[in-house]
Amino acid sequence: MRARFGTLMACAALAAGCASEVARAPVEFTAAVAEAGQRFVTTAPVDLRPDSGYSRSIPSGTEFVVVGRIASGLVLRPTSTVLTLEGKHMHEAYAVRDRDRLVGLYLPVERAYSALPSPQPMPVRERKEP
Amino acid sequence: MSRIRLLVIVILSALLAACASGPRLAEIQSQIPNLDPAQGRLYFYRSDSFVGGGVQPNILVNGQVAGKSVPGGFFFVDARPGPIEVSCSTEVEKKLSLVLDAGQTRYVRTVVGMGFFVGRVYPELVDNAEGAKMVAEAKYIGAPLPKR
Predict the structure, then answer these.
(1) CB spacing of A16 vs B115 below 8 angstroms
(2) Does the pLDDT value for residue B59 go beyond 90?
(3) What is the DSSP string of A82-100?
(4) What ipTM is given for this predicted complex?
(5) Range of B65's domain?
(6) Residue B148 forms part of a structural domain
(7) Fewest C-beta atoms under 10 Å: which of A54, B67, B82, B91?
(8) A107 touches chain B (CB under 8 A)
(9) Residues of B in contact with A91 (CB under 8 A)
(10) pLDDT digits (tens, 9 = 90+) for B83-102
(11) Tens-place pLDDT, residues A7-63
C-alpha cells in the first residue's frame, strides 16, 4: 500500500510540472543575406520528437521563410503558424534544416540550438508566387 | 428545497462567478487604439471552461503584471519589440519565451494544467488565425479603454 502511495505521489509530482529543461547550447546565428526572404513550403508532415518528450507535428503545406543560418543548417521561421519547443518551459522555435532533414530547432530568444535526437525528413518546395 | 438542489445551485453560482464578464471584442473594436508601429501587441486569452476556473493567476510579461488569466477573458498589452518572457504566478511556473517584432500582433493562450495541490496555469503561444478567432469569442477584461 505504501509503495502504491509513493508511486501515486511520484506520478502526481511529475504531472505537476517536473518536466526537464530543454537541452540546448548557445550558437552563433548569422542573418540571411543571399537567401533572405526565400520561402519554402513543406510537402509532407514532419514529426518532431525532442528529448523533452513533448512531440510536435508540422503539417504538410506549412510555409517557412529563411531568416538565417547556424552551423547546423539553415534557420527557417514559420510564417503563418508557430513552432514551440516545450520542456520545463515553452520556447518559440524555428526549424533548422540541413540536407533535406529537420535536424533541430533554433530558439531565437535564448539564441541557442536544440538538436533533435533523430533528424526527420523535411521535404519542401520553394514558393515563388506572392 | 432539498440539500442536493441547494448544493447544485451553490456549485453553479461559484462556477459562473469564476468566468469573465465584460464586452466582446466586436463591441469595443473601435475603442482599441491603433498599434504604434514602433511597438508590438500581445493578446492574452483563456478559453471558457469550468475546469480550474477558480485558479486565476496574474500574467506577467517580462516580470511585470500585465493582467489576469480568467476563463473566457482576454486583454492585450503593447510592448517594445524584442524578446518577451510570459509567466503565470501559479504553484509551478512555466514560462513562455517568444520574439515580438515591431508592428506585430501575437496571441498567447493560458491553459489550465494539473498541479500537485491546485490547478496550474501556463502560457502557450498560438498562431494568429486561432488566436484571433478565440479572442473574438472571449470577453474583454483589460484596462478601461478610451471612449470614442
Answers:
(1) yes
(2) yes
(3) --EEESSSEEE-EEEEETT
(4) 0.83
(5) 2-140
(6) no
(7) B82
(8) yes
(9) 96-97
(10) 999 999 877 788 999 999 99
(11) 544 444 444 456 788 889 999 999 988 888 899 999 999 999 888 888 999 999 999
In a domain, B147, yes or no: no
Q: Determine the Cα–Cα distance for residues A88 and B87; give it in Å rounded to an integer.
A: 12
Residue B66 lies in a domain: yes
Please list every residue in chain B whose beta carbon sits closer than 8 Å to the beta carbon of residue A84: 96, 124-125
Plot region of B103 (φ>0 → left; ψ -120 to 50 → alpha; else → beta): left
Confirm whether B120 is domain-assigned. yes
B14, pLDDT greater than 70:
no
Report whether A115 contacts A103 (CB < 8 A).
Answer: yes
A103: which 3 cell numbers?
Answer: 535536424
Question: How many folded domains does chain B comprise?
Answer: 1
The alpha-carbon gap from A88 to the nearest alpha carbon of chain B, in Å, equals 6
Q: Enumerate the domain spans of chain A.
A: 19-127
Cell, residue B72? 473566457
